[in-house]
């Protein structure tokens, strides 16, 4: 059993010919709505890979909450720890994408930011997977409550990580930009680092030593949102099943690559039997 602790958002996406500049209105866009948030994306990815997953999160008491949780419900993620907060909107990401795929994003975190550390009751599980889209105090409380078992932290969106959290983390997952931003803050970090490199794959490091490298299969990329989330879920599940590091990294790369072949982060998360 895996607990994913993190954010739930509704992504509202407008596809326009071009991005507006300040003060400008661009019209003629096409609207889509996707469930999102790194916590929800990673929980769904893990569930579709066959894990028993509980998502620990906060949503608002609005219609956006049902929409944001819809795919998690279909696939059977345990939502008993997704608590609805009164007088608070569900997190929303407003996304504009231009014809070339360039985007602009504004996030209104809503209930994700109102997640109170004192209210956290982490369900018992063998492993815990977190990101940084909820307050650091919540992650600190989670680190204190998850005394045993695997603790995986995805340092996204990047922010300084509390020393108490870093002491407890077993595996820290970062992309290249996040790794650069955290450079100099990880000198005393004792755990494993998983560095993702987009189409170039990923590597696993202990201190400065590379212990595994993997390249993803060649894929026809349609939409790379969610690739990082798929990678995090897959690596966590593989490490929970105590396979070798190389096998775990190969699996995570394959799942990340597969997630880029469909539109939308959550709809694109592969099921285990899609992988062959
Ligand atoms: P993030 O989305 O967090 O920036 P990356 O872009 O590094 O993360 O992607 C995470 C993983 O997804 C990579 O390690 C790789 O396995 C897979 N991936 C991402 N982009 C591609 C791509 N263009 N082709 C194949 N695999 C990809």
Summarize this structure briefly.
Residues 2-271 form the Carbohydrate kinase PfkB domain. One of its GO terms (molecular function) is ATP binding. With 276 residues, the chain is an alpha/beta fold.
Features:
276 residues; alpha/beta; UDP-N-acetylmuramoyl-L-alanine:D-glutamate ligase; nine-stranded mixed beta sheet; four-stranded mixed beta sheet; 27% helix; binds adenosine-5'-diphosphate; metal ion binding; nucleotide-binding
Describe the fold and architecture.
It catalyses: D-ribose + ATP = D-ribose 5-phosphate + ADP + H(+). The active site is at residue 229. It is found in: Cytoplasm. One of its GO terms (molecular function) is ATP binding. The protein is of the alpha/beta class. The chain is built from seven helices and 13 strands. The protein has a nine-stranded mixed sheet with strand order 5-4-1-8-9-10-11-12-13, with helices on both faces. A four-stranded mixed sheet has the order 3-2-6-7. Helix 1 runs parallel beside helix 2, helix 1 (38-48) crosses helix 6 and helix 6 packs antiparallel against helix 7 (245-259). The structure holds adenosine-5'-diphosphate.
């Amino acid at each position: 059993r895996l607990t994913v602790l993190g954010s739930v958002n509704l992504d509202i996406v407008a596809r326009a010919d071009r991005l507006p500049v300040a003060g400008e209105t661009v019209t003629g866009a096409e609207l889509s709505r996707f469930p999102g948030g790194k916590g929800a994306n990673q929980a769904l990815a893990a569930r579709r890979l066959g894990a028993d997953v509980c998502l620990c999160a906060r949503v608002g008491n609005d219609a956006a909450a049902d929409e944001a949780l819809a795919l998690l419900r279909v696939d059977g993620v345990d939502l008993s720890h997704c608590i609805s907060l009164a007088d608070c909107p569900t997190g929303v990401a407003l996304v504009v994408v231009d014809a070339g795929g360039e985007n602009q994003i504004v996030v209104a975190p809503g209930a994700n930011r109102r997640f109170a550390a004192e209210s956290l009751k982490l369900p018992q599980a063998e492993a815990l997977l977190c990101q940084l889209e909820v307050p650091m105090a919540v992650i600190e409380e989670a680190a204190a409550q998850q005394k045993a078992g695997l603790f995986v932290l995805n340092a996204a969106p990047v922010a300084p990580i509390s020393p108490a959290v870093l002491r407890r983390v077993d595996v820290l997952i970062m992309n290249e930009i996040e790794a650069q931003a955290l450079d100099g803050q990880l000198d005393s970090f004792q755990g494993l680092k998983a560095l993702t490199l987009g189409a170039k794959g990923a590597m696993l490091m202990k201190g400065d030593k590379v212990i595994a490298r993997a390249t993803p299969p060649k894929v026809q990329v349609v939409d790379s949102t969610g690739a990082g989330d798929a990678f995090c879920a897959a690596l966590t599940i593989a490490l929970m099943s105590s396979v070798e590091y190389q096998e775990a990294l190969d699996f995570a790369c394959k799942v990340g690559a597969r997630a880029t072949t469909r539109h939308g982060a959550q709809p694109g998360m592969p099921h285990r039997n899609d992988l062959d």
